[in-house]
Batch of 4 targets.
Target 1
Amino acid sequence: MTTLYKITSLAEWASAVAEGVFRGAPVDLADGFVHFSTASQVVETAARHFAGRDDLLLVSLDASAFGDRLRWEPSRGGALFPHLYDVFDPAAARAVVDLPLGPDGRHLFPELAP
C-alpha cells in the first residue's frame, strides 16, 4: 500500500470537512488536479511550497482508494508525483495531523509511512 500525503491549511481542510468534499487548494484548482506527495517527497514539498507557514495540516491517504483517477506524472527533476484528477471525501483520510514549525523554521513531520 502506498501512502499519499497532502499538505493543506487548517482553513482549507475545515472547509472540506464541512462540505464533505476536498476540492483542492488554490494551486490545485489552477492546475486542474490535487497535488500529492509520497513519503520521500513531502518534506521537500513543504520546504519549497510552504516555508514558514504555521497553519498547516498533513493529511495521509491510501493511494489505492483513487484508482485510475490518480496519475503519476513527472515534476521536480523528473520525479513522478501523484496527481488526483478529481475531488475526494475528507473522510477517506487515514490520518490528519498538525504540521508545526520547529525552532529552525522547518516543518516537524511525524513518522511517515511509505
Note: Residues 10-19 form the longest helix (10 residues).
Target 2
Amino acid sequence: MVNVRADMARIVRMGRPKAKLELSKEQCEQLKAIVRRRSSTQLLVMRARIVLECAKGVDNTDVAELLGVRVQTVGKWRARFLADGLEGLFDAPRLGAPRSIDDEKVALTIRKTLDEKPKNATHWSQGTMAEAMGISASSVGRIWRAFGLKPHRMDSFSLSGDPFFVEKVRDVVGIYMRPPDNALVLCVDEKSQIQALDRAQPMLPLRPTVNERQTDRYIRHGTTTLFAALDVATGRVIGKCFRKHRAKEFIRFLNEIDCSVPADLDVHLVLDNYATHKTPDVKRWLLRNPRFQMHFTPTKSSWLNLVESFFSLLSRRKLKRGVHRSTIALEKDIRSFLDSHNEDPRPYVWTKSADEILRSLQRYCDDFSRG
C-alpha cells in the first residue's frame, strides 16, 4: 500500500507525460548561433537555452532550476518549439493603431518637398508643409527623416574650373596612395590672418544645463600667419608663425623644412596655386634645392590638401574660444598646440582613388545638368 502511494505521488510531481523534444543538426546549430550572437536579445537567448536543455532529456523542473526561471516558463517555450519550431521562439507582431497616412500621401509629401516651393518662402518648414498637406508637423518630420530630407539645411559647393583638373587630381592622389621611395610627402599651406582676439567681457563658464558663453564683442590685438607642413606618413607637423604672408616668408619656411628633413630624403610638397608659391624667387630657390618637388592641387580644391584637416583641428580646439591679448600670446598658444600634437601624431590615410573621385564628380555633374 505504501509503494502504491509513493508511485502516485511521483506521478503527480512529474505531471502529464511530455512529448519528446528532439533537435535536428540544423536546428541545434541555429539555436547555438542565437545563444552566441551578440545582437540576440536576452529573452531570445534564454528561450534558445531552454530548448537546448530540454533536448538533452532534462526534466522541466531541472531545466528551470538550472536556468533560474519558472517551471511554467520552461513548459511554455518547450511547447511553442514543438508546435512551431524555431519561429515559435520569436514574439508575434503586436497589433497597433491603423496608419493614418497612406503611401500616396507620403509620396505626395516627398514630391512637394523636392519639386515645389512654399508661397513667400525659399524652403519648406515642418509647419508650412503640414498645413499644405493637411497632416501634423510631427508626421512631416517622420517622413523627412525616413527619406533623408532636410529642407532647412543648405550645403555649399564650388566646382573647379582648372583645365588640368584631372591631371592634378591623379598626381596628388597618386602621391598620397603610393608615395615615392626614399621620400617624404608634406602637405603645405598657410593659415593667414589669425587674429589675436580679447573678449570685451569675461566668458561665462560651463554649468549643468547651461553652455559655456562668450560675448560677440571683441578687441583685436593684431594678426599672424601659420605656415604648416603636414607629414602624411606620420601626422607630424612642421610649423612656423610669421607676421606677414609673402614669398619671402614662404622661402624662409622652405628653409625651415629643409633643415627639419634628413638630407638623404627627397621632399614632395603638396600645395595650392597661391601666387606666393610661384614667384621667381621661389622658382630660383627650387633650382638650388633639387630634392624639393612641387605637386599643385587644382584651383578651388583645398579638400585635396590634407593640412587643411590640421588647420580645422587647430581652429576648433585652440583658436575659436581662445582669448589672446597680444600677437605674442597667440603665437605662443599655436606653438604649444603644435608641440602637443607632435607628441602623439597619427598618420593621415587617403583611401579614395583618383578614379573614384572623378566618377563621383561625373555623377554629381550629371545630376546637376539634369536638375
Note: The beta strands are 183-199, 218-231, 237-242, 266-271, 292-296.
Target 3
Amino acid sequence: MTNEGARQRIGFGLLLAATLLVVLPVLAIIVLIVTKGWSALSLEFLFTMPRDGMRAGGIFPAILGTFVLVLASISFALPIGVMAAVYLSEYAKDNLLTRIINLAIINLAGVSSVVFGLFGLSLFVVFLRFGVSILSGALTLGIMTLPVIITTTREALRAVPKSYREVSFSLGASRWQTIRHSVLPFATPGILTGAILSIGRVAGETAPILFTVAAFYLPKLPHSLGDQVMALPYHLYIATTQIPGVPENYRYGTALVLVGLVLIMNIAATRIRSRFRRKR
C-alpha cells in the first residue's frame, strides 16, 4: 500500500469517527425518548386538555400553541428576512455601512435566546403594550430567526450564476424584474432551507416564550393573537422540574411529541423545497 493510499484510509477513518460521534448520541437520545415515551401516546394524550395541574389529561393546548407560534413567527420573519437579503445582496454597495450590517447579522445569530426573550419582554410586552400574548411571542421568535434566514437567503442568491442576471439585463429587464424572474426562482430551495432551520429552532426554544407568551397551566385554546398559549418546550420544562408526581412516561411522551412535531414540519418544508428544485 502506497503512502497516499494509507493517508486516504486514515482520512476516511477519521471522517467516519467524527460522523459517528455526532450521529450516535443523537440516535441514543431518540431511542431513549421513544422507549420511555411511547406508552404515553394515545388519542386522549394528544387531543384532550390537561387536568389536575398537568398531572393528567392531554397536551393538546401545548401542541396547538407550538404550531401557532411556529407558523406566526415564520410568517413574520421569512418575508422580512428575504427582502433584507435581497437588498444586501443585489442592491446595497460594498461599503463600511453594509459591512457593519453584515457583521451585526452574524453576531446576532450567536446571541443567546435568553437575550432575545428579554428584548421581546421590554419591547413588545412592556413598551408596545402587546402584553404576554401570541403576538409578542411570535415577534420575538421571528426576530431571533432573522439572522439565519438572512444568511441562508444571501448564500442562495449568491449561488445563482451571474450569467442569469447578465442575460436578463441584455434583454432589457430592470433589476427588479431580473431578481424576480431570473434570481429568486432559482434561489427558492436555498431560501426554504433557512426556513426549515428556523422551524426547528423556533419549535424548541423555551427562554423567549417564557418571557413573552407561555402560560404555566392553561387548559383552553387561544382565540386571538392577544391570548397566552401553552407550548411544548415550556410545558415539558415545567412538568419535569416544577411539578412533583408527574409520571415519567408523561414527560417523555411530551418530548416525543415535540420531536415528532418538529420532524413533521421539517418534512413538509423539505417536500416543498424538493418540488421547487424539480421545477427548476
Note: The radius of gyration is 23 Å.
Target 4
Amino acid sequence: MMEPRVKARLWVQMALRLGDIEGCHGAVLRKGDPDAGGVLVVLRQQERMLVLSQIRSAEGELSWLRGTGHAPVDQATVDAYLERRVSSDPDLWILEFETMDLKPPFDARIL
C-alpha cells in the first residue's frame, strides 16, 4: 500500500526539526519545488560525507539510496554528485546534517 505523500517543504521542515531534537545541526543548502521536489540529504562527519537520495520503493514507501556509495567520500565528490543531480532535476531540495555517525536524524529506510 502506498504511503500518503507529504509536500516536500513540510518534509524538509520535519527533518530539520528532528535534526535539532537529535542534536544534529541541519541546513537547507538548496530549495526545490515546495510541493513535489525530491530531496537529497548530505550527512557530514567532519571531512567524511555521504549523500542520501530520496526514492520510493516498489511498494511506494519513502526510502533512501546512498547516492555516493556505501563508503564515505570527500567534499569534491559530494559537490560533483549534487551538481549532476540538480542539472537533471532542478526541483530538488538539498539538506545537510552534521552527524557523529553518518546516520540521518530521521527514520530512514536505506536500500
Note: The first strand starts at residue 26 and ends at 30.
